[in-house]
Amino acid sequence: MSDTTVSLLTPPGTAAIAVIEARGPLALATARALFSKALPESLEVGRFWFGTLAGDEVVLAVTEPDAVEVHCHGGPQVVRAILSSFTAAGCTERTPRPSDEGFELLQHAPTLRTANTLLDQLNGAFAREVQRLLALLETNPASAVEPLHQLADLGHSVGRYLMTPWRVVIAGPPNAGKSSLVNALAGFQRSVVSEVPGTTRDAVSVRVAFDGWPVELIDTAGMRDASGLEAEGIARARETVDSANLVVWLLDGTAERMEWPRDDMKREKLLVVVNKSDAMLGWGPDPNAGDAWGLLLISARTGDGLAALVNEIVKRLVSQSPPPGGAVPYTPRLIELVIDASRAAGDRKWDDAARLLSAALE
């Protein structure tokens, strides 16, 4: 069996577009041999080319040093012809078992990165790590505690969000530019922008991908004392803030006084950002207050600082990112089993930990 594999990433069946991945030491060389056009000697990650493969017009993209994607027409015959071209060239076709509980998830993965993570698990990454941990529990149980804790942390911090996006709430005082920021990050006008305070009265959400991870951005009503319909919107905004994975508290860099987050907001899930950095007037009566928050300066209007903001959001949400091919508990059942096994191992209940991990292989 070849170490270079070819897999269909998109759901099987008739579709407009299909994505096929070749991964392994011979992936790039095989794609080069099958592609209709001459490719550069060095295939740079992030580049793509238009041409034909197996008689169909395709886009060939280099996604990693040892992986390429073929974006083609989604008809079953076209997909099978391209897969067969790779297998005839020596690649091994990887097909997830329909009985696997993660197979249905793969078909509905919200981003390519989460699809790749799920595909790694369906190709055995999770099972191999569990088997390794079971062997450690049998021969040297104390040495299994730390890697088991790490696997549980990945389930809690990444596995839970392979299908369900992280919730990032944009909050702050009226007219700080919350709706403008959501629109800038989404790349289109999702929220209504107005200079009239209180325009946003209900939570407005949009799904995006940051560094390949699924994120739901939520625009909320400006926080201030109000009455009537606006007060109801502010109450809903506070409820949304409480349920968020991360709150981006937006300050108005042109305001005479900074409206800092409430004292009861949890610091660990707060990211304080100053908008309108292109037209800032000053820091208000307390110029040193911002230092304690580690402020980011951005301009939703010009785009300045948005890349740094996205990087910081990803850093806060994804505490540890699994390496390509790394094991991740990928369903609620597996996540809970691994977390329980980690707790049992921490209490030196080796038999209970082994029993729970064995259940994760069933």
What does it look like?
The protein has 362 residues and is an alpha/beta fold. Among the domains are: 5-95, Probable tRNA modification gtpase trme, domain 1 (Gyrase A, domain 2), CATH 3.30.1360.120; 166-317, Rossmann fold (3-Layer(aba) Sandwich). The chain is 35% helix and 20% strand. The protein has 11 helices and 12 strands. The strands form 2 sheets. It has a 6-stranded mixed beta sheet, with helices on one face. The chain has a 6-stranded mixed beta sheet with strand order 8-9-7-10-11-12, sandwiched between helices. Helix 5 packs antiparallel against helix 11 (350-360) and helix 6 packs antiparallel against helix 10. The longest helix has 15 residues, at 125-139. The protein starts with a strand and ends with a helix.
User: Which whole number gives the mean pLDDT?
Assistant: 84
The fourth-level CATH homologous superfamily of the domain at 166-317 is: P-loop containing nucleotide triphosphate hydrolases
Q: What letter string, H or E per element, gives the SSE order?
A: EEHEEEHEHHHHEHEEHEEEHHH
The DSSP helix count reads: 11
Shape: flat
Report the top-level CATH class of the domain at 166-317: Alpha Beta
Rounded to the nearest angstrom, the radius of gyration is: 24 Å
